[in-house]
Amino acid sequence: MARIFITGSSDGLGAKVAQRLIKNGHSVVLHGRNAQRAKDATEACPGAVTAVTGDLSSIAETKGVAEQINKLGQFDCVIHNAGLYRGPFRKTSEGIPALAAVNTMAPYILTALITKPKRLVFLSSGLHFSGSTNMDDVLWLQRGESQYNEHAAYNASKLHNVLFAKAFARRWPDVTTSSLDPGWMPTKMGGESASGDFEDSIASYVMLAEGEEAAAKRSGSYFTPGKKEDIPHKIADDVYAQDQLLQICAEVSGVKLA
């Protein structure tokens, strides 16, 4: 039995994956951005251990999520599933668009603060291939709301998650780290016209969460639905880009890597 924490697991793929992992006999901790969403998560996933709460668009609340998780003990796997899909700038108290805060900053902060698990999974997307490779203003702090583009912001954030997976695979050889494109699924985020098969997506999540198959043991790998390993954007292996992203997140969040 593995102990697994999944962010953004009150509905959608996060909830479906949690349900499958619970069915497989694993100990699963859920997450919702507030008390109501945490309640939704536990109702959707009977058998879960508990649900932690915290708005991942807030640096302070994200740190609070890490504190709640650490009080529960060490986990075998942390799945950074939470994400926002486009939408307006929605500036946070730190002046960051909510999308960048949830999709880029939160995975960094949680990874840095949660006691090291055996496995880390960062959620990406096939759209990461269109993400900007410029690491100078990844959080839109210089460009601001007037220059904000929701499509560019989302695509870049998904590239950041591939970079995170590669960076932590390099820095933490004792942790198996992967990135995953869950596919275009008919969820609230993906929309009713999405053509993906939930079973293919869930299979990839579960493989990486359990970490028993040979493919899941290759740290730094990028996967797509159906447990297929693929090659991500070539910048993913650029150590300078990886370290730039980590440095920016550390400076803005005030959270340094051990």
Automatic annotation (TrEMBL):
It comes from the Eukaryota. One of its GO terms (molecular function) is oxidoreductase activity. Gene3D superfamilies: NAD(P)-binding Rossmann-like Domain (3.40.50.720). InterPro entries: NAD(P)-bd_dom_sf, SDR_fam. Keywords: Oxidoreductase. It holds the Pfam family adh_short. The keyword Transit peptide does not apply. Belongs to the short-chain dehydrogenases/reductases (SDR) family. This is Short chain dehydrogenase. It comes from Ampelomyces quisqualis (Powdery mildew agent).
